[in-house]
Amino acid sequence: MIAARPARYSRLLTFVLAIAACASFSRAAMAQNWQAIPANINISFEYVPPESPQLQGVYQRVKARQVLEEYQHFLAPIRLPHPLKLRAAQCGVVNAAYSLSDRSLTICYELVDWLEKEAPQTVTTDGFITRQAAITGGLIGVMLHETGHMLFDMFDVPVFGREEDAADETASFFALQFNKEVELTLIRGIVYQWAVQKDPAASAPMSVYSDEHGTASQRMYNSLCLAYGGDPQTFQGFVDKGYLPKNRAASCAPEFALVKYAFETTIFPFVDADLMARVKQTQWLTPEEMK
Amino acid sequence: MVQFRRAAALLPVVFLLATAHAQSPASQVDIRYDIPTDPQFQPIYEDLKRRAVLERLQGFLSPLRLPKKLTLRTAQCGATGGYKSGEPVTICYDLVKHIIDVAKQNTKDPSEQSLMIYGTFVEAALHHTAYAVFDLLNVPILGRIDDAADRLAAFTMMQFGDKVAYTTIVGTATFFQYSKQTWTGSDFASEASPDAQRFYNYLCIAYGGDPLTFQFFAPRPGPSMLPRLSEKRAKRCEGEYLQVRHAFNLRIMPYIDPALLIKVRAGQWLNSDEIATGVK
Which residues pair with B75 in a beta bridge? Predict the structure, then answer.
């Protein structure tokens, strides 16, 4: 589960409509790509219509974009021992969650709404993160995080560290399995959603640290560190600009190696390598989404 | 402190150092006390040596079948110590002094000082050793290695009866509470977690593993010496404990000699003066 934030229901930005139009145009162009990968037969999906009129637009866009259908194909290489249900639904909070009780992964419309509202109008002032990267990368980052929880549960993965950090590591590690454009889009989106949230104040009581999740900054730096550790060339700019402090950057290659080894030994044995190679070569994002 | 003293008063007390390491068979762990050059560390060096802390750790680790020799040492290092692959596990006199300073600056109660000093020393030793175990046994680590080392340390503290668990967990938590570390900005880029987060991680593993002994960590209104777990976190603690136990059983247990483990678990690993008076 990602850290819950207060639900925010305000008017949708007109910009989102434009994005939806672009997405549906490029979806037609990209459809063949991801549909060439077989769907994971152990995964079903469901778009639950929201009760809130304010979330109707998000619901329509998520459904039209075939987010869950595409994810069902994206997870094709994983030999799941149990059925998994993907769900998009109104939850009452800004959240996403994997549920152990019914093995379902739910993306809340409120989360998509929040990502759209928090995203920069066009691009951040430093030019690093575009609106599309913030929305697309942010949403996929959350889905990958919850997928981490799902994998730990389904495969009884030994997790020595904190599970929420392990799920964040899953998101960053998976994000780095594709081409440079996809890597950048996903990591930028993941980083942005933490960058816009506040850390506890220095004067805050100790109890603010009781949560099982790290603080927003910790999660941002962890994601950046794995990205830089896995692909220093692509993410050097984040170190040069000071977004990832140099003293942490120095430990990122071994941190990435540790996560890579953990995946190779605990999760990859359940992955169809040939299909995974095809998934890696598939264009999952539209050109518009990678701008 | 009153609350945990009351709970601990129910516990029988006798910790005999001699019993502990006299029963310990030879292990794949070598030990070494490096002589400090800075005179301020001399009393610490002598005290650790007199207490045979490394001999005890050596015996404690004896069931572990490591693929190669591991050296544990105490040393003056100008830092907090740790482990790097191929090097000894180092517990620094500097860290021990810091622990003693924090204890003495924050409480005049000798039993509470004792609890913090010995509990936190054990925590530091187990935390650093966990790094070596992960490395030497090629243990896959998910979820940040420094937190993984804490969780393995906390889990280990819970395996040797109430007295050891109580002293080490409460001692460690009290130290993290008093360290009053303040994090801002890029402090959060550290690969280690803030002491406040570590505090709750230890509480959660302890409460999750033994909610009866550690019931004073449970969320409850009213004053308490140590901050309590939140309702939200407390609900997860059994799962967190079981998660570490599962990982331990899968990845470390196969390298442990079960007969020796029973002997080690039956041993007494802390001296009577290493337990706060209230706990005795």
Answer: B92
Tell me how close the Cα of A269 comes to any Cα of chain B, in angstroms.
Answer: 14
Residues 6+ apart with CB under 8 A from B125: B53, B57, B72, B89, B91
Give the mean pLDDT of A234-260: 96
Identify the pLDDT of residue A8. 32
Yes or no, beta carbons of A160 and B134 under 8 Å apart: yes
Q: Report pTM.
A: 0.89
Domain map (residue ranges) of chain A? 14-290
CA distance B217 to chain A (A): 12
What the block records as the tokens of A173 is: 């590690």
pLDDT digits (tens, 9 = 90+) for A98-143: 999 999 999 999 999 999 999 999 999 988 899 999 999 999 999 9
pLDDT exceeds cutoff 60 at A253: yes
Which residues share a beta bridge with A46? Answer: A87
pLDDT tens per residue, range B46-94: 999 999 999 999 999 999 999 999 999 999 997 767 898 989 999 999 9
Give the one of B134, B184, B191 whose C-beta lies nearest to A255's C-beta.
B191
Distance from CA of A258 to the nearest CA of B (A): 7
Q: Tell the burial category of B258 from Cβ atoms under 10 Å away from its Cβ (0-12, 13-18, 19+).
A: exposed
All residues of chain B having their beta carbon less than 8 Å from the beta carbon of residue A152 are: 142
Determine the pLDDT at residue A24.
40
**What pLDDT, on a 0 to 100 scale, did the predictor assign at position B275?**
65
Alpha carbon separation from B189 to A29, A189, A224, B192 (Å, rounded): 41, 18, 10, 8
Closest CA to B56 of B99, B91, B11, B82: B91
SS3 A130: strand
The verdict on a CB contact (< 8 Å) between A244 and B139 is no
Shortest distance between the Cα of B134 and any Cα of chain A, in A, equals 10
Q: Which residues of B touch A215 (CB under 8 A)?
A: 188
A44 touches B: beta carbon within 8 Å? no
Residue of B20, B10, B1, B206 lying closest to B114 (CA atoms)? B1
Residue pairs between chains A and B whose CB atoms are closer than 8 Å: 118
Q: Is A240 exposed, middle or buried (0-12, 13-18, 19+ CB in 10 A)?
A: exposed
Residue A52 sits at φ, ψ, to 5 deg, of -75, 125
| Cα nearest neighbour of B237 on chain A | A212
Give the confidence band of B277 by pLDDT, cuts at 50, 70, 90.
low
pLDDT given at position B78: 79
Q: Strand A84-89 to strand A104-108: parallel, antiparallel, or no bridges (unpaired)? A: parallel
Q: What is the mean pLDDT of chain A?
A: 90
Question: Encoding tokens for residue B18?
Answer: 């001699």
Q: Confirm if B51 and B21 have CB atoms less than 8 A apart.
A: no
